[in-house]
Structure formats: structure tokens, C-alpha cells
Amino acid sequence: VSEVQNPQIRLACRPSGEPDESTWHYVEVPAAAPGPDQVLVRNLYLSIDPAMRSWLNPVKTYVPPVGIDEVMRALGLGVVETSNSPKFAKGDLVSGVLGVQAYATVGAKHLESIGEPRLPLQTYLGALGMTGMTAYFGLLEVGQPKPGQTVLVSAAAGAVGSLVGQIAKIRGCRVVGIAGGADKCAYLVDTLGFDAAVDYKAEGWTKALKDACPDRVDVFFDNVGGEVLEAALLLGARGARYVICGMISQYNSARIAGPSNYATLILNRSRMEGFVVFDYHARYPEAVGQLTQWIQEGRIQNRDHVVAGQVRDFPAVLKKLFSGENHGKLSLQIGSV
Amino acid sequence: VSEVQNPQIRLACRPSGEPDESTWHYVEVPAAAPGPDQVLVRNLYLSIDPAMRSWLNPVKTYVPPVGIDEVMRALGLGVVETSNSPKFAKGDLVSGVLGVQAYATVGAKHLESIGEPRLPLQTYLGALGMTGMTAYFGLLEVGQPKPGQTVLVSAAAGAVGSLVGQIAKIRGCRVVGIAGGADKCAYLVDTLGFDAAVDYKAEGWTKALKDACPDRVDVFFDNVGGEVLEAALLLGARGARYVICGMISQYNSARIAGPSNYATLILNRSRMEGFVVFDYHARYPEAVGQLTQWIQEGRIQNRDHVVAGQVRDFPAVLKKLFSGENHGKLSLQIGSV
User: In chain B, what residues touch A268 (CB-CB under 8 Å)?
Assistant: First the structure.
């Protein structure tokens, strides 16, 4: 095993804005042989997520920052090559924090078994992975939408947002999405069944947003922050819930802009609430089962954006995420079963 | 009645920052005779509140803005001079929106009867008025403090803050106050029984705040906003509740600074929530009864800051509020029973 070469992307230095070429460092090292209770995984799919940007800052959040010269953190899906654990056998499909590399040597307790896949593999990093868990528990548990209420979603054509909107529709809500560009907006309404979509890149979009929410907004699921959050704060219905999931508009800023109109929380008797999806770990099987059923029934359109390539393509694929080029859950495929 | 002269303070123009002399316009006009179901009230105490600043902005909040050349809005307490309503008789003590003037001609349905006072009159504008209702329902209903938890209060020596802290102590919480100056901090600990107090005007106050909250903060009751809110967001315990009551540090700013670190809501699984005290109107008698009992038992130290003067003194008294000169609930006494 130690003869196998393992291409890796490591963190060269902390970016002050958007990561660029100088942020990363490509190396090839021998894959580490698995120790007791460890497993050697050959990575097939690497999940490309907005949270990656926050892991680059020298600040502990819900996880420590990625260290300089450490392998870049990434969720991934792979196949077991060698197992020193009774939990896994060669050929098993697993997911976990595998890193931006071709092979991962990981403790068995840090891996989840995929079992016999019922949907395409990439979906286990998307609608059935952290993306789906985030949408499901963030919307239903933090947002608490009621039938007939208006649910507004930002980054609505993105991986999490598109699931949030569709789950809200299944729950009987009026659903409005915010996305960048006419194509994404058309996709939300025509393909995903949103009631309305607003293009935040278009002139006069805040007026369009107001018009799209005649009964104001009961739940806002936000992945964007900045002026999108401020626009939504102006539209809160009484008792509105602002689910704070992310703030992709701000991740590359030196100083995050807080919502200057948070006083509207007083006027509208509203709340902004954050959550960490890991807290719902014990309930993941419930969500995976429900989402699998909805996808198989065709009630949820699930879109995965898979880029085929190699480990060295990671920096370019990450850029797609921040420029909004991706349509659905982005992952980098670097191998096949 | 129409022969009685009525001194008034009216709004001359909208201030862009802190109100000054040019903001106000002093007039004396004949008091309006009460019409059917109206009452003529001789004002005794005018309540001086932070919310007054927000009423000057050309923006509807939970009430419309005060119009140019309208009498400045103020809560007050007075005595009925003439009543055209069966609800009130001459000599009754009443409270309501009486305005910055010597006499108010008001519909009977807009007045509350004080009844036979059990505490000094000014207290009915303070601990037993909107101030007390705000502290009581904001802390207990929105903040939901549990025994043993840490409750942090900003503007803690102020009218609302001092009540919030003492109610939290009665409920078995560890209570930390933030106030400006050593005198106020000593007052919080020595007189009101807070567990700790932090002077936000002192060097290194954010470190002192962290030290004062070794188990972090479960409930933050905020009347200040700005950097005080940001400091508190860094200290949230898991599931912390940030009760947004006001933002006095920002009221005179052209653009309110939102909390740049609101992403901590995610990390700490916390929420920021606003409220409007009027929503608890039906439960005011419960709160008035409870607070009266606590004050009479000596469990709540209630401090009213009464400035004796005339209607024309209002601009100067309002300035005391924004400069933090007041100790406790500020009111302007312009008459006696």
C-alpha cells in the first residue's frame, strides 16, 4: 500500500479574500498504510461546499481551521481498499471527511457506511448527505414552516436552497426563491415548482421581491447574508423565523457586514436563529429515508453537478462555487467503483 | 377650559443625529376642550424614554413617526381635570400617551386608570409602567432564563436593565451587567445584587466581560447594540437567547451597524429575537401585581430619576438620557396632585 502515490491539495497560506492559485499547494506522497482500526479509502467523489471557505480562516468554528500545509478538508465518498476494522470490508462504499486527496487513511469510527446505494453515488454527498440534512433539519426544525405560510429561500438554485424550497412545497407552503440570473430563476419555477423566483442581479430586485411576497415572509432560509438578508428582514411577517445557515456573500470579505436593519426583529417580533446540522445526527436515518422516498416518487428534483477530474482540479472547481456557476450540489469526481 | 394655556413641545424638524435645540419648537396654545368621551388631563409626570429617538425618524415602526409641528409624543401620568366619559371622574389618576405638554385632551379609551396608588406616582411610569412590562416580559417570555444560567444585561444601570437583572436574580440566575462607569458598576453589584458588572468605558472591557462569564452567556438582554452586542455574541453558550429590546448606541447614527459576527448564531446554535411589549397587554396586571409585591418586599430596588421642571425643560432632560447621566427611570415632573 505504501507504494501507492497519493496526490493531495494542501493549504499553502490563508487567503484574505477569495482563494486563488497561491492558496494551494499540490503534492504527491505515498498513501499512509492503515493502522489498527483504520481503513484505507480510495476517494471517488469530493464534496465542494461553501463551508470550505470558512475552514480557511484562522478561527475555530464548529471545527478547527485547516492548518497550513495540512491536506484540505473535504467530505467525500469512497470505496474501501484495505480495512483493519471489523466494521468494513474491501469494496464497501463509505462517506466521511476524506480530504482533497486520492486516498484517505481514516479511523473506522469516523466513516459512515453507504450500504447498498438506492440512488446515484453523488447523491450521497448531496440530497442524502450533509446538504440534504442541512436543508431538512434547518427548514423543518429551525424554520418551523406551517402550511400556507410563505417560505423565502436565498441561493435557491444551490444545493441546499433547492431542497429547502421543494421540502417547503411538499409541506404546503408558498415558496419564493432568490437566485442570480434569469436561467436559475426559470429553473426554480418551471422545474422545481417554486411559486415565484427573484433574480438578485436584476435592476429593482428588492421591489420584485416585495411583490413576490404579498403576505410577507414567515420563514427565510438564508445562505447568503449581506444585502439579501437585509432585504428579507424588511419583509418579515409577525413572528418570522430567519434561519441562518450560511453567508456566502460574505465569506471572502475581510469584515462581514451584519444586517444593519436587525431592528426589524423588534417590529416584526421575529427571530434569527443559527444551527449546526451535526446536532441532528441521531435523526439522519429518518431524513435519509424521507428524502430517498421523495426523490424516488419524483416529488423532489435532485440536481447534482459533478465535475469529472483529478485532485489537482480542486482549486478550479472551488472557484465555480463562489462564482455561482454550479447548478445544484457540486462535487469533484476523481474515480469510479 | 379653553382659557387654560397649554405649553407644548412640538417637533420642528427631524434630527439627523442627536436632537438639539433646532429639533424642537416651544409654543403655548389654549388647551383643547374635551369632546364626547374625551377627558382633559393635567399632566404630572412625562416619561423620558429611548424610544423617543426612534419616533423622530420618518419611518413607521410599531407606531407612526411624530409629524412635523405635532406635539412630541410621550407617555405620561396625570390627573383628570374634566371628564366627558363615565369611565373617569375629576381627580382620577391616569396614564397614557399624554405628550410633551401641560394638558392632554384624550379619548377615555386611550387612558389607563392608576387606581389607588400603592407606590410613588413616578413608579407607575417606571417599574409598573412600560419600563417594567418591557423588562418582565422581555426577560421571562423571550429570554426564558433557567435557574443557574447566566443572564447578561446591557445598559444595566438603566431603567429596563436594572429591573431585568433583579428579576433574573430572583429567578436564580447568575447576573452580569454592562454599564458605563465605575459608579454605575458598583451600584449594580453593591445595591442591586448583580454577581458582576463590567464597565464598557474601561480599557480591556471585553476581556473583563469574558472573565465575568466563565460559563458563557445563556440570555443576553440588549438595549445597546453596536460593539456591546458584538462582544456578547462572542460569548454565547449553546442555545443562547439574545433578546433584542433596543439599540441606544445606534439611535443617533445615520446607518445602524448590524452585528458583524452574527455568524456566531450558527456556531452557538443561538437566536436573536425581538419583541414588542404591547403584545403582552392582556398580562400587564399579572406583571404589575408581581412587581409591586417584589418592590414592597424589598426584593427589587427600584430607582426613579425624577427631574422637576416645566414642559420647556424637555429637550435638556432628553439629552441626559442619551448621555447616560440618568440613574434609573427618567421622568420630567411638571406638576403635583
Answer: 274
